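#help-structures
NK: newbie question, is this the right format to request a structure? protein is Acetylxylan esterase
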Amino acid sequence: MKKIALLIIFVMVMQVAWSQAEANYDESKVPDFELPDPLKTFNGKKIRNSKKWTKKGRQELLDFFTENVYGEVPGELKIASAQIVEQSENALNGKAKRRQVELTFKKGNRNLHFFILMYLPKSVEKAPVFLGYNFYGNHTITEDVNVIISEAWSRDNPSFGIINNQLTEQSRGVRTNRWAIEKMIDAGIGLATIYYGEVDPDKDDFTDGVHPFFYVDNQQQPAASEWGSISAWSWGLSRALDYFETYSEVDENKVIVFGHSRLGKTSLWAGASDERFAGVISNCSGCGGAALSKRKFGETVGRINSSFPHWFCKNFRNFNNNEEALPVDQHELLALIAPRPLYVASAEEDQWADPKGEFLSAFYASKVYDLFDKKGITSDKMPAVNEPIQNTVSYHIRTGKHDVTDFDWEQYINWAKEQVLK
């Protein structure tokens, strides 16, 4: 079985390598394109102030992204119960409180459970938090032996000891490098994280996770305009925020949603569609996240929809190899977060995610922030590597590859203290 798992991983890696080899990484081959103006409605009317943006411009963009990119949540499902299943007042060498909360959702004979792992600073009575998903289980972000191992389906990763789609003790702490928990705690900010596979397993299968709770009659998968997995994961982040509104140890008005890669796409959509999030961080989110689609650099709409057909709604496939037909682009997704603080980050070696396209998206979104007298990115010239621009709209490109590093977290923490928590 292990040989089979290794063979599957090898085939997947080769498929990704082939697709990336075929991608465009040459700026001279980026097609000529015209970006839609976020300060013009679809029928060409100018938006001249924040009131008009909020009432007209924002709503029609949100509707388009909902119906044609991420998909509509086809109903409402509230938390049936919330229970603290484990806690400690003496975590992280006495610096923090640890809480593990199980949220349960019920409909008919269906039940869904996901667990929020929280580390909260002892020094703050009602803590602001970074809220974000992890890829392989809450137990992977820390070596803390008290953190519960999820029983949910997981992508195999033999190097982490994950085979047969099951998480094990062997994978405890394998992703501590991506979560600077003690730096957060020292800054007076907590962390809340969820294993994304508990909300919706990351595979092209809509018979599991949260989707079937909303099916009618003999429906087997979402309709063309209904949610894919990114929208479902975003839904889960909003349900965590619902819980924080009832929980005295977290400041529900200071929850910053964070995500890396596909979960960076998720954090952006969560922040755009749920205005309760106080700030939004996108780390190496690429196509369908912060990067401009019309540049066709690195990963493209067609490639992402063929490789991961479950992430977006089916309507998004209308723009496969047809980005020029999109009446929107991702800078307008970022604009939906205005006037709340936004941080977009890239990595120099992560050309698949198109760092320049991510930066330009933040730049072009900034004109909407201007309506609210919030400072964004003021020049279309990319900053030097490892020299962040930190305003209400912030950006950095760091050395290294597609990952989350201490450098990233140091910038996010400083930005959060200056832009969100003041």
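mod (FA): yep, format's fine, and the tokens are attached above. The first strand starts at residue 81 and ends at 91.
NK: thank you!
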